[in-house]
Amino acid sequence: MFPTDDGDSVHSDEKGGLTSLSSSVFLLSAMSLGVGVFSLPTVLNAIGWLWGMGLCCYFGLLSTLLMLNLLDIVKHHNTQSWEDLCRLAPLARAFSRVSLLVSMLIANAAHMQTIAGMLFDLLTVFVTDDYGQYHFSAFQRASLILIFLGVAGPFCFADNLAALQHVGHSVALVVMLLCATVVVSSCISVGRGLGAHGEYATPAAVPDLKALVTSAPNVCFAFTGMLSFWEVFAALKKGVGVEQAFPRMKKTAILSGILVLVLYLLVSGFCILAFGTEAGKQRKGNGYGNVLYNFPVDNYPVTLLCAALVVVIVLEYPVINFPMVNMILNVQTLGLKGRRYARHFVSLAGMLIVILLDLAVPDLPDVIGLCGSTGLSLFCYVVPGYICAVACRGLLGKIVGAFSMVTGLTMLFGGLPTGDPYSDN
Predict the structure, then answer these.
(1) Nearest alpha-carbon partner for 145 in 109, 103, 121
(2) What is the DSSP string of 131-158?
(3) Distance CA 186, CA 103 (A)
(4) Can you give the pTM of this predicted structure?
(5) Ramachandran region of residue 202, left (φ > 0), alpha (ψ -120 to 50) or beta?
(6) C-alpha of 169 from chain center
């Protein structure tokens, strides 16, 4: 059913790698194009739209520059794996392993929690024409997540990322359609004079340094291409050859960064124009932190695409799971590589942890912030920044690395959630 390292995969050459630029862009973007785009308006309300969009541009540019500099280092040192790349900087490999594990588990937990609540509310609407009148219990949440993981489970056992490339296409297509629908619906509301005015308008800036620091991890959650950077690059090397893989990966990183940044800016910008400080603040049902709940259920394009979003986020689970499982299997001291059912065992253990995380941290903004401040800050910014600062040949690369390290450490020590950072109280 699934290709092995020596087998074939759909839309690839005989080695089982990626050959399509669009496939590589969507796979690299799949980590970012999940539920985070619809939680960002809440962040902009906490720190102001000017600071929020500024943070988006900063993280978008920084994450892209990091990937481009890492590619130069890989080419110069002829490194053959992410582990080899991390060996260029002392202790980077250990930090990389721990932070990748934490990032992937919490990111999948955030996704599963979001779509479980959305599906519960969608089912309630289907039966009663409304939602929010029934309590979503921990047992119901765990049951739905267990069903999701049962659907995603077989795809988690694939040992070739190219076999999941159509998942990347599906996620990107649905999220882009939903983003476009959200933007159009917001424009219609503003055009009808129903946009946010006066005290309900989102301020340009909130003079609160603590809010800025604690909100940064939620924006960081938006730019997570680094999580699948090496896996996509490795699949390109298999598909188009080593020489062609470098320029193809550079194009992939740039296009992915632009795609994610544009979608995040459009959705967050138009949503705060339409809903202002109420964006993502719906307490009805399971909507807190999710701007999609600001749209009425009789907005059928949004509602139907929300149902489609549930489906593709379930299918995205294996894409997020893939780098984590590969990392664990490649740890030599564990002795798992080459074992017949090792990938199955690691994937199932990760699913159990995801369920426990969602039961322990039931609030979506806290889950996203926890992911950004703990795992993503280290893996996506501190570790690659450290490698760039140590191994880059040019001054610019070292400067980018230094900025990345400072940014990641600031989020790590200052961005841990200490409650609800978006509360009005």
Answers:
(1) 109
(2) -SSS---HHHHHHHHHHHHHHHGGGGG-
(3) 32
(4) 0.81
(5) beta
(6) 15
